[in-house]
Amino acid sequence: MADNPMLKFTTVQRDMPQKRAPDLRGRDFREIYAEYAGDKAREQSSRCSQCGVPYCQSHCPLHNNIPDWLRLTAEGRLREAYELSQATNTFPEICGRICPQDRLCEGNCVIETAGHGTVTIGAVEKYITDTAWEEGWVTPAKPTQERAQSAAIIGAGPGGLAAADVLRRAGIQVTVYDRYDRGGGLLTYGIPGFKLEKDVVMRRMQQLEEGGVTFRLNCTIGQDVSFADLRRDHDAVIIATGVYKSRDLAGPGSGAKGIVRAIDYLTASNRRSFGDDVPDFDSGELNASGKRVVVIGGGDTAMDCVRTAIRQGATSVKCLYRRDRANMPGSLREVANAEEEGVIFDWLSLPKGFGGDPVSSVRVQQMRLGAADVTGRRAPEEIDGAVHDEPADLVIKALGFEAEALPTLWDQPELEVTRWGTIKAEFTTGRTSLPGVYAVGDIVRGASLVVWAIRDGRDCAAALLDDLTTAAQPVAAE
Ligand code: FAD
Ligand code: SF4
Ligand code: SF4
Q: Which amino acid residue places its CA nearest to atom 4 of ligand 3?
């Protein structure tokens, strides 16, 4: 009987791809993890115990068939592994890089629970699809028949692009509108290159174009084209605009120069990496070089800001968060990466005000964790008299994002929203209160994750295809 290539977790140690040394990676915006060599990917895949009820799969928002593509990788059947992986995920190589695996698939791997260290699912997923790109297996949409029906998608982030891919493969005429000059949404202008290099996103954009998706960039719906016109010109409209209204800080001095929003700071840095002209970067306003930087917030956006500031040559970088390490929303893996790169975390620290204009300090109130609040989380409370001034030349506010008021901006009072301002849509289909109008991603969920936006985009496209089926008028492909 042939040797079973799997269940090697007792003899093969968990081994992530090599991480570049902190002092080297802190000097550029390239990704910090190397790619697995083929043998290593096979070896690491072979650790999977092929669970009958795979918790990794049930905790992956896309329900990726993880055990099967791990087995195929362990057996060296990479092309089949790729086919299986891409059947449920539009952008596996992107999820492999930036999903918070420790909270999703890997965080629920049973061999981790048994003390052996999780299978490195994300790194293998990335390896499979990066290899597929190298081998030319990733091909543009080639619909077997064209359909006359058209869909407009507002927003070229992962939610909109995932929907565009499914619809285009089914022969729908798809136009994606985006207010930025490049597609990708936060994949392009939010998430820094050290987590996701930009050519990984751009090659996907190019492939969607080659598959027949039309992109209208530099086009803001509500300004350059009205929402009503889109509804008139297309059979269906998908809203995938994300959430961009930054939560703000109050307190004395909060309007001083040198206190900036995370999204502006990260966008400027990403544009710089593309080689664009960025006057606010050149002027120093959105550039941390030579500055004492304080970032306020404890989520993934804050982690991206602190690590960007290190790479820009800040003299010091501190992160203030009002709860402690165990209660922060950001990925602990990213905190560890930031600490290795020289970021200092001041836990249980609340900014109460700012000194100087331009800013020269942050007034910091020390906190402690008190009783649990209604959500079960222990609420931070102030410690009397424990206040100090933290020197700062650049303060970056990374406190989260909210939805823009789309019904008002687009003059669509019938478009129903939730009490948080996000669009009210059925989670499994994206259908909204307006006929023929769907919504996906962060604009429905609030600030969330790339993998959820992809899931929404795919589900919504499937529902939209169902809805269009009765009216379908196939025309012969040319
Ligand atoms: P977006 O990606 O926001 O795309 C929306 C698009 O709509 C944008 O391109 C925008 O220009 C366009 N748009 C908006 N309004 C209009 C309009 N009126 N007209 C035309 N176009 C419009 N998630 C992870 O899973 N892992 C991470 O590591 C991670 N890191 C993150 C780091 C940062 C700094 C941020 C801000 C978010 C991060 N996220 C991460 C979250 C993730 O990026 C989002 O959940 C995801 O991008 C949402 O996808 P989306 O398609 O809904 O919206
Ligand atoms: Fe894990 Fe994300 Fe890949 Fe799912 S998509 S298997 S959660 S890395
Ligand atoms: Fe394999 Fe872990 Fe998933 Fe089980 S939970 S199938 S061991 S990856």
A: 51
Give the number of the atom of ligand 1 that is nearest the alpha carbon of residue 452: 45
Distance CA 220, CA 236 (A): 18
Query: Relative to the CA of 186, which ligand 1 atom is closest?
Result: 2
d(CA 128, CA 104): 19
95 and 163 belong to one structural domain: no
Task: Count the domains in the chain.
Answer: 3
Q: What is the mean pLDDT of the chain?
A: 94
CB 163 within 8 A of CB 153: yes
CATH code, 382: 3.50.50.60
Q: Residue 114 has what pLDDT?
A: 78
**CB-ligand 2 contact for 95 (6 Å cutoff):** yes
- Residue bearing tokens 């795979």: 54
Q: Check whether residue 281 and residue 343 sit in a common domain.
A: yes
Statement to judge: residues 322 and 456 lie in one domain = no
- For residue range 89-104, what is the model confidence (pLDDT) as tens digits? 999 999 999 999 999 9
| pLDDT (tens digit per residue) in 364-378 | 999 999 888 777 778
| CA 398 – CA 259 distance, rounded (Å) | 11
Domain that holds residue 280: 254-397
Shortest-distance Cα residue to atom 8 of ligand 1: 185
Nearest to 457 by CA among 126, 62, 183, 60: 62
* Ligand nearest to C-alpha 405: 1
Question: What's the pTM?
Answer: 0.96
Say if CB 421 and CB 403 are below 8 A apart.
yes
Q: Select from 450, 455, 458 the residue to mutate for testing ligand 1; criterion: most ligand atoms less than 8 Å from CB.
A: 450
